[in-house]
Amino acid sequence: MTANIYPTLREIRDTHAWKREYERYLPLSRFVFRPMGFLLTWLAIRIGLTSETVSWLSGIIGVIAYLCMVSSREHLLLIGIALLCFFNLLDCVDGSIARSMKTENPYGRFLDSIMYWIDMGFWALVGIMAYQHSNLLYCIDPLGYGPVFWLAVGGLTSYFFILLGFIEGTFDQCIRNEWDGIRGKSDTNLENKQKTENVEQAFRRETPPFSIVRVIYHNMKVRETHYFLLILAYWSKIVDLLLIGYLFYYFTHTILLIIIYSVRGRQLLSYKYKR
Predict the structure, then answer these.
(1) Based on CB atoms within 10 Å of each CB, which residue in 56, 100, 175, 198 is the most buried?
(2) Rounded Cα gap, residues 39 and 27, in angstroms
């Protein structure tokens, strides 16, 4: 009888239904992290772990991963990357526990949000990794600055990553509701329905080539892809190329969003004056 209080594996999966359409375009999440996350959620619930406990545990794992990756001992690097993957897995689990057990609360959301610090420092961490281990670089002495050049590139990449998130968050906070309003979107839907519509709209485009671009774009953004590409760069000894590629990606993305969001803001302002 006691076992009946626990959700089944199928029920755990069902609580995640609103995000399936989105993750259909993210193979690493769909086929690797999410299925493992469901199994770990099933186990965590049965041993009595709460979503808040898992969030704290993921943060501790993240700290250990960072310490391994800034080490000068190369054998610790793969351990650090593996721990980052485990951190990502736990990040899937804490939300699944909260939804499955119906224990979602402001404190849990707060903990889940502050664990974002792992992402904020990731590219700076890769820069330190490149600086410490010049044997992992394709170009050891760019512009005559040596490995310290890649230390700076890592810091800049993290900066533009954070700036990009700030710009997106500012648009959501200041403009998005009114922008969606003038485009005829309803703001009275339930939270899960809104999430589903948002992720579906993110991929719904009329021309297939542009849809492919969107799929690539969204895969480039998620941490699962970052970790996978870092593993490939580590084995291929082109960590510096990964860094410079993502610096270009975040820089151009930031500039484009500033332009796009500014245009939308001006359109919204013109619309209000016309009324």
Answers:
(1) 100
(2) 18
